[in-house]
Write the structure tokens for this entry.
Amino acid sequence: MSTVLDEIQAPAGAGRVITDPATGDEVGRVPIATTADLDAAIAAARAAQPSWAQLGDARRVDLLNAAADALQEHAEELAVLLSREQGKPLNGPNARFEVGACEAWLRASTAPDVSPQVLVDDGQIRAEIHYRPLGVVGAIGPWNWPMMISIWQIAPNLRMGNTVVVKPSEFTPLSVLALVSVLNTVLPPDVLIAVPGGRDVGEAMAAHPGIDKIMFTGSIPTGKAIIRSSADTVKRVTMELGGNDAGIVLDDADPAAIAQDLFWGAFINTGQTCAALKRLYVPDSLYDAVCEELTKVAAATPMGVGLSEENLLGPVQNRKQYDIVASLVEQAKDSGARVLLGGDPDPQAVGNFYPTTLVADIDNDNPLVAQEQFGPALPIIRYTNLQQAIAWANGLEVGLGASVWSPSPQRAREVAMQLNAGTVWVNEHGAIDPRVPFGGAKGSGYGVEFGREGLLECAQAVSVKGPAGSFA
Ligand code: TXE
């Protein structure tokens, strides 16, 4: 029986080899798309868009739910491929979880009411707002959650009557091609097309007159490049650019009670998550206890090859990212910071395994704190004055998420209201929800995803207005 991977990969001898970051083994061969392939994909998606829009919302919702059923049927196969290509283990908040999230987000995108609304009807004036399709949307994604982030870009656009051309990260294209292939067992032809190209294809997509909007998740420099490239065609853009999320523990928290959630807030997907906890601020009075409890959880969490059922943490997805993490930890060590756990990668290790690392007694301006590590290393910064900790948390040019940890609802709210980020979590971190809008503050980008607000960003708002009785 042929697998999804058989269907999507390039024939033997063609394409580019993708290797497993845990073992170096070949996962498959990705076809190499060019900008000419992109042009053809955009033309096909443009041709398919009017009839997709004319199907109507109810029919599109049915098809999206049927596509979610198809994902469910292929869930294990997709999770295994994702685990091999991305590196993330099958278990824990990793590969099976990601495929499950794709299904959940797809279904959730069908729930909000996006029908036209009457804004004014006062006997003199009638005004309505309608949400029309934009056309063809380009989706450019990263390598950390390749399937889930692609679904965040695909699902709301399809719901709103747009067709979508997806350009996956060159590090994890097979996962996205497989996802798209399964969705396309249900969707009409050319409504959703994947183009597995490199940076040149991304650049061409951002500038392309046949693309009406770009949804992007990735690094800040690339986001800026896309904004520049898209300017001449006045494209809509949604920019999810990652961050360097702070968490503040208040002095009434119970270290043992919060350690597990703090750990997973930081180390979900082995730290390679845009809205992971990347700087932890802990009051002097609890500092040793929080360090001790976190170290216990971290030391007990197995890291290894993704396909082994016992592992919950995996390799860093690519060597470039591994080197960033290693260099930041080395700089922290050189500055005199105290390594509680890890920080000692094995140079002989097969695969990009960087050990789970906790670094204490580190200054707020150390590069491991000030720069996004995007890997399995967490700096824990001591504070004596809460206002100082809040100022530190808000002190960077990014603001995707932030969190506050306290058993007191009033104190937690008071601090939450002072944190400048797109999402502020209380007693959790990174716990995204398809019903709750998600987006960045400051350099972390603009536009929101998820919920009704996220759907409306994939539409052209059209106001219709006239004297009362002039239209029905
Ligand atoms: O991302 P890039 P990379 C952060 C993380 C990491 C850094 C670099 O800190 O160290 O980003 O990761 C396409 N026009 N995040 O190099 O370069 C590219 O082909 C159009 C945060 O993987 O931003 C890929 O598909 N497209 C993040 C996508 O952009 C271009 C997740 C992302 O690539 C392009 C991952 C261009 N000029 C990394 N250049 C998060 N927010 O979750 C590249 N691309």
